[in-house]
């Protein structure tokens, strides 16, 4: 047989599969209605296991695992179809359209903003970029930024989430699940670190350097070359500069931003000491209310998936069928659980796209934890 004839055969088979698929989905919808009337949950593990067992056996050794994957996908589709028919428009879909209606058409230039650290901190530099007329309140910790927003003390909060060379700011991701907030914007800031010491001191005489863990990590090559220097972590790069300024010691220095030299009366002992010239940190802007500004083309969510083989794969398949491009996938262990993880996804997409809203509503309706973290632009 030639290729064209094989393809004709495949087309005919697909025609039958599609007819049967539609029939299967309609039947699942009927079952969904029955379940709603009788107060039964949509998911029935035992039934799915039974079908997988049968299908796996009937398919024969060669195709057993392929058939199980196919039917696993069919279950997902049939459950989400049942859910959608029963829920109509989900709560999340309503909240999103509400936010779209109420959000001003232009991102504000001012507002009260919580930043971690003190003046000269990189969060402040990020804030200046986003809110040129922002009114900054400094808090000591990242947790304090979340709290200031959650309690309504500040309209916005700024938090670093990842660096192009040193990676994720884990502490911020771990705090996300303890707080209620929405991401309304993100920004990428080029970060050039400088070594700051007392006037008249020099790199040769420095025995100890203070800074934040991220800055130390981004300057690891500098420490390899200067092995005599002891590293001491502190909560913020600007706080490190202030500590050096307040200390009597002349053998200590801080890794900070350049503006901290002038702010704290220090001297630049070494310039651009980060490993890479292309060193960027991404910051998010959080707010208490959901707000989706024009141009929002990025969506962030936080989910757990069941601790079972294929669970993450099935979640990813939902993105894949819509042709959604994933921008970031981060996993963090859930404290107190046995290697269970919280997954954070950033993906490209607009909430004006009904397929995307349906996907979000579908995940929100599932049995696992799902949090919509916001839709925004960078
Ligand atoms: C259709 C049903 O709902 C769900 C979907 C199933 C399926 O697609 O075969 C099986 C079990 C349930 O988790 C059902 O309960 O039969």
TrEMBL record:
Residue span(s) of domain ACT: 300-378
Keyword Transmembrane on entry: no
Main subcellular localisation: cytoplasm
PROSITE patterns noted in UniProt: ACT, CHORISMATE_MUT_2, PREPHENATE_DEHYDR_1, PREPHENATE_DEHYDR_3
Involved pathway(s): Metabolic intermediate biosynthesis; prephenate biosynthesis; prephenate from chorismate: step 1/1; Amino-acid biosynthesis; L-phenylalanine biosynthesis; phenylpyruvate from prephenate: step 1/1
Site label Essential for prephenate dehydratase activity, positions: 281
Annotated keywords: Amino-acid biosynthesis, Aromatic amino acid biosynthesis, Cytoplasm, Isomerase, Lyase, Multifunctional enzyme, Phenylalanine biosynthesis
Annotated ranges, domain Chorismate mutase: 1-86
Domain Prephenate dehydratase: 112-288
GO biological processes: chorismate metabolic process; L-phenylalanine biosynthetic process
Gene Ontology molecular function: chorismate mutase activity; prephenate dehydratase activity
Annotated protein name in UniProt: Bifunctional chorismate mutase/prephenate dehydratase
């Amino acid at each position: 047989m030639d290729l064209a004839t094989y393809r004709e055969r495949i087309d005919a088979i697909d025609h039958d599969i599609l007819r049967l698929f539609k029939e299967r989905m309609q039947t699942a919808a009927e079952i969904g209605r029955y379940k709603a009337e009788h107060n039964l949950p949509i998911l029935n593990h035992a039934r799915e296991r039974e079908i997988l067992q049968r299908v796996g056996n009937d398919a024969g050794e060669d195709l057993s695992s392929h058939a199980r994957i196919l039917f696993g996908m069919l279950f997902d589709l049939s459950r989400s179809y049942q859910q959608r028919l029963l829920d109509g428009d989900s709560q999340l879909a309503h909240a999103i359209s509400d936010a779209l209606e109420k959000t001003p058409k232009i991102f504000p230039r001012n507002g009260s903003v919580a930043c971690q650290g003190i003046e000269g901190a990189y969060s402040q530099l990020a804030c200046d970029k986003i809110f040129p007329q922002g009114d900054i309140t400094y808090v000591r910790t990242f947790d304090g930024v979340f709290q200031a927003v959650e309690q309504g003390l500040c309209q916005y909060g700024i938090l670093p989430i990842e660096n192009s060379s040193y990676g994720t700011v884990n502490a911020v991701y771990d705090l996300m699940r303890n707080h209620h907030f929405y991401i309304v914007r993100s920004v990428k800031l080029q970060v050039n670190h400088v070594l700051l010491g007392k006037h008249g001191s020099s790199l040769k005489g420095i025995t100890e350097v203070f800074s934040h863990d991220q800055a130390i990590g981004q300057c690891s090559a500098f420490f390899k070359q200067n092995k005599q220097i002891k590293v001491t972590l502190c909560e913020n790069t600007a706080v490190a500069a202030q500590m050096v300024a307040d200390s009597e010691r002349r053998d200590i220095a801080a890794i900070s931003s350049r503006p901290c030299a002038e702010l704290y009366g220090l001297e630049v002992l070494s310039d651009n000491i980060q490993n890479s010239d292309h060193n960027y940190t991404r910051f998010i802007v959080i707010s208490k209310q959901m707000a989706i500004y024009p141009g929002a083309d990025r969506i962030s969510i936080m989910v757990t998936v069941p601790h079972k083989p294929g669970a993450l794969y099935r979640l990813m398949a939902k993105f894949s069928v819509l042709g959604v491009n994933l921008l970031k996938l981060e996993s963090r262990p859930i404290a107190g659980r046995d290697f269970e993880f919280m997954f954070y996804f950033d993906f490209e997409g607009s909430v004006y796209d009904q397929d995307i809203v349906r996907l979000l509503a579908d995940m929100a309706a599932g049995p696992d934890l799902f949090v919509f973290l916001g839709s925004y632009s960078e």
